[in-house]
Amino acid sequence: MHYPQVYTGKIEISEKLSASAINKRMVDGRLHLTALGLEGDEQAETRFHGGPDRALCHYPREHYDFWIRQFPEQEDFFIAPAFGENISTTGLTEENVCIGDIFSWGETMIQVTQPRSPCYKLNSHSGISNFSAIMQESGRCGWLYRVIASGNISPDEPLVLVSRNSDVLVKEAIAIAFNMPFDEEQYRRLMSAAALSASWSLTMQKRVMLGKIEDFNRRLFGK
């Protein structure tokens, strides 16, 4: 049984992050979950965050110990939900969750669509200038869900795996997309994974068509 901590956030304007909803707060009690996410949760840059394929962000709580070991001077920062996640659990990680996995949660069902793609706002948020690149290289990215059955949820209700629909671990998807040399076979394997998000499917297809990997610098460093 994986009982989640649940977080939502509103868009805030700051000098450090401009517009962002990364600063989330824990929610107790029942919430309604729709195809676009949890009631009361917002996303500032909807081109890259939110939408049906990215309705929820899940980050494994056990990763925070790793980040504290890497950056002990930042210990106060590395506590959920430092990465703007909606769901925090122990026991579910990139090493045992697959693209396409369906979990029941309260009245709802949610499906894993893609790893999270670290972006440059994490650098400013953490105060570590290349944090997004370090997160990407480490493979500790978390993952995103689509909502395939709406309804009410609460932190008192566990996430329960009810269907496994591909053999592509989130860990493997991260490696294929971010940390391997060009490999058309692996891109096609990833595209064949049930429920892979439209944006990731498009990115992999463009790689196959163009024969090269896109530049990560804009996403990781904002340039």
From TrEMBL:
Residues of the MOSC domain: 25-162
Coiled-coil intervals: none
Protein's recorded name: MOSC domain-containing protein
A Pfam entry, by short name: YiiM_3-alpha
Domain of life: Bacteria
PROSITE patterns cross-referenced by the UniProt entry: MOSC
Gene Ontology MF annotations: catalytic activity; molybdenum ion binding; pyridoxal phosphate binding
